[in-house]
Write a structure and sequence with these properties.
single chain, alpha/beta, 6-stranded mixed beta sheet, 3-stranded mixed beta sheet, 9 helices, 9 strands
Length: about 230
C-alpha cells in the first residue's frame, strides 16, 4: 500500500511531468487571484486552451453554475477563513472540465493526464514555498514544508456530496495533512452518455487557498474544523 506521505512526494513529481503540455512556469497558484481556477484547470489536466473564469461571491449562484467546454469557462468561489471582515481566503472551489471533454472538443493536445485535485494542491505547496523569503523558510513549520502530506482526494460523482463540509487540513504527529475534495464525471463515461451535456465532463475541486497554506506553514493560523 502506498502511504499518503510517499504520495505527497510522487504527486509533486507527477505535476511536473503530466503538465508538460502547459508551460508550468505560467501556472502561478501563489495567491487566490481572479484567474485561480483558470490556472487550476491548466494544471489539473495540462490544458492548453485559453479560458475565462466566472467569479461568484454568492454560494447559491456558484452551486447553480456549470463550467463550459467551448468557449472554455471555469467558475470560482472562495471560502474565507472566518466570518470576520476582510478574512483571508481559506479554500477555493473550482468547477472545471475533464481532460476527455477538452480533447473531444478541441482535439489531441488540448489536455493531458489528470493529476487530481491533490496534484493541484501539491503544485500550490511548491509555489508557496518557492515564494517565501529566506527568513520565512527558516521559520516554516512541518520541516520547512517537507512534512506536508497530500492525502488522496475524496472523490464523488454527486454535486450535493461535493458541497458537504469536510476537513481540508489537519495536523497529526507534526505533519500537516491536506486533502482535496473532488467531483469527476468524464465526458465519455458510458454511465453518463444519456445525461444532459452540462452534467458531463465535469471536474470539480475544493482546493487549499495559497494564503491559507502560507499561514499554516508559518504558524499564523490553525486548521479550521469542518462545520
Amino acid at each position: 500500500m502506498v502511504s499518503s506521505f510517499s504520495l505527497s512526494i510522487s504527486v509533486v513529481a507527477l505535476v511536473l511531468t503530466a503538465c508538460s503540455s502547459t508551460p508550468i512556469a505560467t501556472v502561478k497558484l501563489v495567491s487566490t487571484s481572479e484567474q485561480f481556477c483558470v490556472e487550476a484547470q491548466a494544471a489539473i489536466v495540462g490544458s492548453t486552451i485559453p479560458a475565462r473564469n466566472d467569479l461568484h461571491s454568492d454560494l447559491v449562484d456558484f452551486t447553480k453554475s456549470k463550467p463550459v467546454a467551448r468557449p472554455l469557462i471555469t467558475t470560482q468561489y472562495v471560502w474565507p477563513e472566518s466570518t470576520a471582515l476582510n478574512a483571508m481566503p481559506m479554500m477555493v472551489s473550482c468547477k472545471m472540465k475533464t481532460a476527455d471533454h477538452l480533447v473531444s472538443e478541441y482535439g489531441e493536445g488540448a489536455a493531458g493526464t489528470d493529476i487530481g485535485c491533490g496534484g493541484v494542491n501539491a503544485l500550490t505547496l511548491q509555489r508557496v514555498l518557492a515564494s517565501m523569503k529566506l527568513t520565512e523558510r527558516r521559520r516554516a513549520l512541518f520541516g520547512g514544508g517537507k512534512n506536508v502530506v497530500i492525502e488522496p482526494d475524496i472523490v464523488t460523482a454527486l454535486g450535493p456530496i461535493w458541497l458537504e463540509p469536510y476537513a481540508m487540513a489537519r495536523i497529526d504527529k507534526g505533519r500537516l495533512h491536506l486533502q482535496a475534495k473532488a467531483m469527476r464525471n468524464d465526458w465519455l463515461d458510458p454511465r453518463y452518455l444519456t445525461a444532459p451535456p452540462q452534467f458531463r465532463g465535469t471536474r470539480y475541486c475544493h482546493l487549499v487557498a495559497p494564503e491559507y497554506l502560507r499561514r499554516l506553514l508559518l504558524g499564523e493560523t490553525e486548521p479550521v474544523n469542518a462545520s
